[in-house]
Write a sequence for this structure.
């Protein structure tokens, strides 16, 4: 089993229709979390602050996911639903047909950072 060494490799290996979404998501997260360290854990790229993973993302066969700390998702559950996206306790799924809005990514990332105490 091969592991993904970095964000660029992960995005390049993702299904082509998802690559623009992942690049945009990565850029938005990097802008909102400027002091975060880019990392890869469990073959999923993410952003870590003071040892806590505040946000990560993944591509699957039919959708992408943004993963955050649970409090961030519960805080913004109404906005996630209003955007027509599905959420779990720790993630939001989206696709090229229904991408996650940048402003929602920003609010979720900031809330996740607060939950981490970073």
């Amino acid at each position: 089993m091969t592991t993904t060494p970095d964000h660029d490799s992960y995005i390049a290996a993702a299904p082509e229709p998802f690559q623009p979404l992942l690049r945009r998501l990565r850029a938005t997260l990097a802008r909102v979390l400027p002091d975060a360290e880019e990392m890869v854990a469990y073959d999923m790229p993410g952003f870590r602050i003071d040892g806590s993973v505040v946000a990560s993302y993944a591509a699957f066969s039919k959708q992408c996911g943004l993963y955050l700390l649970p409090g961030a998702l519960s805080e913004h559950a109404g906005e996630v639903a209003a955007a027509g996206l599905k959420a779990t306790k720790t993630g939001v799924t989206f696709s090229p047909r229904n991408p996650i809005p940048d402003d929602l990514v920003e609010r979720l990332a900031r809330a996740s950072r607060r939950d981490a105490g970073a």
